[in-house]
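Final report, Chapter 2: Outcomes

The project's central promise was a pipeline that accepts a single protein chain and returns its three-dimensional structure in a standardized token representation, suitable for archiving and comparison. That pipeline is now operational. To close this chapter, we reproduce one record exactly as it appears in the project archive, with the input sequence first and the structure output second.
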Amino acid sequence: MKRVRVKTKVKAKAKDIIKSFDVDFFLKLSPPFLDVEVNQFDGYKTEDSIKITTNFLGYYQFWHNQVIDYFETDKEVSFIEQAIETPFPVTSWQHKHKIIQIDDEHCYIIDDVEYSCVNFFFENMIYPAVFLTMYYRRPVYVDKFHFKSDQL
């Protein structure tokens, strides 16, 4: 099993950030090297489904994720997507989205992905693509939530 964890500091309230997680924002979070078609996007609450078809260099892949947990307090909002159907070579996929309020004006948005493939070779082979896909979100988050810093 491999893990990719990317943390981004933004200037916003956790409850305002979670309201932005709609289909349009989902598409903005997808990197340009990955063509994404959204077939279904119910949202981010427990039992909601997200079905997408991706195209990477002519290789079409179908994904079906389901939100298995949603959690909200005054200081944190989080939800977990788990893959129901994954493309080859991925055998399992879980994406934890956490938004943690760190003070009155700032939050951390954390994308924490754990995945497995049919074997160790494939897990390592797709790691750069998974990392770049999650890392690509950092400037999108910063732009959306207006945090100006010399350090992303």
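Archive annotation: DSSP finds four helices and seven strands in the chain.
This record, like all others produced under the grant, will remain available to the consortium after the project formally closes.
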